[in-house]
Amino acid sequence: MIKKINVLKLRPSAILPSKQSEFATGYDLYACLDNNSMTIGMMPELVPTGIALSIPKGFDVQIRPRSGLTAKGLMSGYGTIDADYRGELFVTLYCIPFLKQYKIQNNERIAQLVFSQSVAFKWNQVNSLDNTNRGKKGHGSTGKK
Asked: What are the pLDDT digits (tens) for 102-121?
């Protein structure tokens, strides 16, 4: 079932999120800059998208990095947009040290939106947890050396 998401363009040049392939789960987000470009350095910068969303109750939208930009050294911070937020979407971008700077162009794809459905639950405090084969082994314990 396809859900409709209301999108408000806050600036005429804003581009709506879009998928680049049939089976993609992420929708690309585009920079919507007042100038034609913006230089990103090693300090986090908020990059505007020029859009706001009305996310249905029971869902959230996660902002995730684009792998092509990450491979170049431009990182995007993960973020969660809750169903009750109605402001402009911004993407936090920064360069890793070897890159130092990256010039974002207006309307460049800068991150992805991925929808997730949230489930309501209550915390149930207990005195112990059930046992599993993995138990308390963490931080890489399931990987093979």
From this structure: 999 999 999 999 999 988 88
- Tell me if 66 sits within 8 A of 17, measured CB to CB: no
d(CA 115, CA 140): 27
Chain centroid offset of residue 21 CA: 18
φ, ψ for residue 10 (rounded to 5)?
A: -85, -20
Measured CA to CA, the distance from residue 141 to residue 112 in angstroms comes to 30
| 66 touches 118 (CB < 8 A) | no
> For the chain, what are the domain ranges?
6-117
CA 43/CA 38 separation, integer angstroms: 13
User: At the fourth CATH level, which superfamily is domain 6-117?
Assistant: Deoxyuridine triphosphatase (dUTPase) (2.70.40.10)
Q: Which two tokens stand for residue 14?
A: 């804003």
38 in Cβ contact with 104 (< 8 Å): yes
Helix, strand or coil, per DSSP, at residue 61? strand
Q: Which of 113, 99, 114, 111 is nearest to 32 (CA)?
A: 111
pTM: 0.84
